[in-house]
Write a structure and sequence with these properties.
With 285 residues, the chain is of the alpha/beta class. The chain has helices at 3-11, 18-29, 39-46, 50-60, 65-72, 83-86, 96-117, 120-131, 144-156, 173-177, 196-208, 245-261, 266-279, and strands spanning 137-141, 163-165, 185-189, 211-216, 229-232. The longest helix is centred in the middle third of the chain and has 22 residues, at 96-117. The chain is globular.
Length: 285
């Protein structure tokens, strides 16, 4: 079932109650996250009993929430498909040069499509949040997304003092979050198959601390309604692994723009950083 079919079923129901309308409003706002939702969380957020949700599901023609949820899940979402499972090993192999040329073409398309389709309102919100000098910024990414998060953090430290890099070791998160406070910001990068640690952190941060910015490659995800701003990246690639290039370009642009905003205050940070590089003989001379 897609959103249009859901709307059609709603239109066919007579005598909707006020509670029915609250349920409809919730699912209309959070339709993309239904495949990852749990009945106990849905009922808690709407503030209704499970039996109430069950009766509404029967009005829609389902046996219950589980039946409804299953109907919204696309076949490829029914399990987390690994890269090797989606890899087409039967296609004709190109030689190395042809493969690299094709790769670069696909990456260029991803970057252009990302820029064309990105939610400008969410992008403006992201820029405002990460550039706000009053807000501490936490950054997390798991697996391949950790590389993007670390890149943002390393360059961001030249610009912003209150920036903290988190890792996906759940035992370490409380230590890293102990100084977090209301009004802080979380920048989370999470690609399909969606780290469970990152997902739990996004939800907790949104509910207990402040704004959350999520960079991801799929509109259907487990954290869309816990995101203040969500930026969708194209990650299509015909090879073994999905591409992270569009996400990297966005991260690079964001951190460079932070530098533009703080350009009059950068000298002190850079001088301190350069003196530390010198003290530890970091670079070859």
């Amino acid at each position: 079932m897609n959103r249009a079919e859901f709307t059609q079923r709603i239109a066919s129901i007579d005598n909707l109650t006020e509670t029915d309308r609250r349920i409809i409003d919730y699912f209309d706002k959070h339709f993309e996250s239904i495949p990852y939702s749990k009945v106990i969380d849905v009922c808690h957020e709407i503030n209704i009993a499970k039996s109430t949700l069950g009766r509404f599901m029967m009005k829609l023609g389902f046996t219950g929430f589980r039946d409804f949820k299953e109907s919204t899940i696309e076949p490829e979402q029914r399990r987390n498909i690994s890269p090797i499972e989606r890899f087409d090993n039967s296609k004709n192999r190109k030689n190395g040069i042809e493969f690299i040329e094709k790769h670069c073409g696909e990456i260029t398309d991803n970057i252009n499509n990302t820029l064309k389709n990105i939610n400008r309102q969410h992008l403006e919100k992201t820029i405002a949040l990460i550039c706000d000098p009053e807000k501490r910024l936490y950054v997390i990414g798991s697996a391949t997304a950790h590389a993007l998060a670390e890149y943002f953090y390393l360059l961001g430290r030249y610009i912003k003092k209150d920036i903290v890099l988190l890792d996906a070791n759940i035992a370490n998160l409380p230590h890293k979050l102990i100084d977090s406070r209301k009004g802080d910001v979380l920048l989370a990068i999470s690609y399909y198959r969606f780290s469970s640690v990152t997902t739990r952190l996004i939800k907790w941060f949104y509910q207990h601390r402040g704004d959350t910015i999520v960079i991801t490659d799929n509109a259907v995800n487990p954290f869309s309604h816990f995101a203040t701003a969500m930026l969708l990246m194209e990650s299509q690639h015909s090879g073994l692994f999905s591409s992270r290039s569009a996400g990297f370009v966005l991260i690079e642009a964001l951190v460079n723009y932070m530098g533009e905003v703080k350009s009059n205050e950068l000298n002190e940070n850079f001088n301190v950083m350069e003196s530390l590089f010198e003290a530890f003989n970091v670079f070859n001379k």
